[in-house]
């Protein structure tokens, strides 16, 4: 007796699910290849124009046009291979990267220019001599460096306590119309032109000492007027980031509010507050108009903020460029060297601020 078996039904093979998120992908090197091709095409076009016109090759234009060609090219290839979703992601990434590069290029160009032209007078004489009795070559900016440090330091001593205490009041105590009025005034002061601060300081001291007075302390007051709103706004935002649970835990242990602010709130936000203070100093250390009005300028050394005119690095750069003598190259070299010195001072202040913030951060037990 023979047994017959029925054939088993064929198992249906599941077809792969089409998913736009896991579709084809461009190779990792594809964006760089597309970018290189776009730059090469732009370079070839600019090379043809350079040969036809008999002019030099424009590398900057070729790179810019190549970057502009890259954006639609990467979107097109990504759309054909990866789909619209990833193509849109690559398009936005390309636009963000292009915006970042465009923002960095002027900074790099400015730094290279200042360093290139400023190093010619970056010598010992520049940092040890003033411009007293100097009409041509030689001389230095020691009086301007000392004036900048004195006026900026005094402005910081005035504005940091006022700004920090104001922000503490607004965050911890301020309620009602008084706090709203202070906030409104701080917002208004943030947008005032710097020359208005210089006119205010000049008018303030002219009331007591007579018209035409120019003092270093007047320049410091004008810079303090510009610093206070920046310190208040930055410190206020940092204090608001401190979790309320830390305050409530201190209150539950019976710690007074003022001690909670001193021991808990301020140490927790000290890194952000220090960064805000440094931003305020960097914002005013390069101001020229208020110091030109309130402190004036001089070619001699002056260590006394309350007597006589006082020079500063921004005003020194302005006067050297605006009042060029013979030879004019000596004045321009001093101006570039002073600009480089000002940049280095701001850089040093930022490095010091980072070290202070790192040392006093809560993770170090402070």
Automatic annotation (TrEMBL):
SUPFAM superfamilies: MetI-like. The keyword Cell membrane applies. This is Phosphate transport system permease protein PstA. PANTHER family: PHOSPHATE TRANSPORT SYSTEM PERMEASE PROTEIN PSTA (PTHR42922:SF1). It is a multi-pass membrane protein. It comes from the Bacteria. Residues 145-353 form the ABC transmembrane type-1 domain. CDD domains: TM_PBP2. It is found in: Cell membrane. The lineage of its organism: Bacteria, Bacillati, Actinomycetota, Actinomycetes, Micrococcales.
């Amino acid at each position: 007796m023979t047994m017959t078996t029925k054939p088993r039904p064929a198992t249906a093979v599941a077809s792969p699910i089409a998913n736009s998120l896991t579709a084809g992908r461009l190779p990792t090197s594809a964006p760089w290849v597309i970018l290189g091709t776009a730059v090469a095409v732009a370079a070839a076009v600019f090379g043809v124009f350079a040969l036809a016109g008999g002019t030099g090759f424009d590398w900057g234009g070729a790179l810019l046009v190549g970057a502009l060609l890259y954006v639609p090219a990467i979107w097109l290839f990504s759309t054909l291979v990866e789909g619209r979703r990833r193509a849109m992601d690559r398009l936005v990434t390309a636009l963000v990267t292009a915006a970042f590069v465009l923002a960095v290029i002027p900074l790099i160009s400015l730094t290279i220019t200042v360093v290139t032209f400023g190093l010619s007078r970056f010598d010992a004489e520049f940092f040890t001599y003033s411009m007293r009795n100097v009409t041509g070559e030689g001389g230095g900016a020691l009086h301007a460096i000392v004036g900048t440090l004195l006026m900026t330091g005094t402005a910081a001593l005035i504005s940091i306590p006022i700004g920090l205490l104001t922000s503490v009041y607004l965050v911890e105590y301020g309620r009602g119309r008084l706090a709203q009025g202070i906030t409104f005034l701080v917002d208004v002061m943030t947008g005032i032109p710097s020359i208005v601060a210089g006119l205010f300081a000049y008018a303030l001291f002219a009331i007591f000492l007579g018209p035409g007075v120019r003092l270093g302390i007047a320049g410091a007051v004008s810079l303090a007027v510009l610093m206070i709103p920046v310190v208040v706004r930055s410190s206020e935002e940092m204090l608001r980031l401190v979790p309320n649970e830390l305050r409530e835990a201190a209150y539950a242990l019976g710690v007074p509010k003022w001690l909670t602010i001193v021991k808990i709130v301020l140490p927790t936000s000290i890194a952000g507050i220090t960064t805000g203070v440094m931003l305020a100093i960097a914002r005013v250390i390069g101001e020229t108009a208020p110091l030109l009005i309130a402190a004036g300028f001089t070619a001699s050394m002056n260590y006394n903020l309350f007597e006589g005119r006082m020079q500063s690095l921004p005003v020194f750069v302005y006067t050297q460029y605006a009042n060029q003598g013979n030879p004019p190259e000596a004045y321009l070299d001093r101006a570039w060297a002073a600009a480089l010195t000002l940049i280095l001072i701001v850089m040093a202040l930022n490095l010091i601020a980072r070290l202070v913030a790192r040392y006093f951060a809560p993770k170090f037990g402070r």
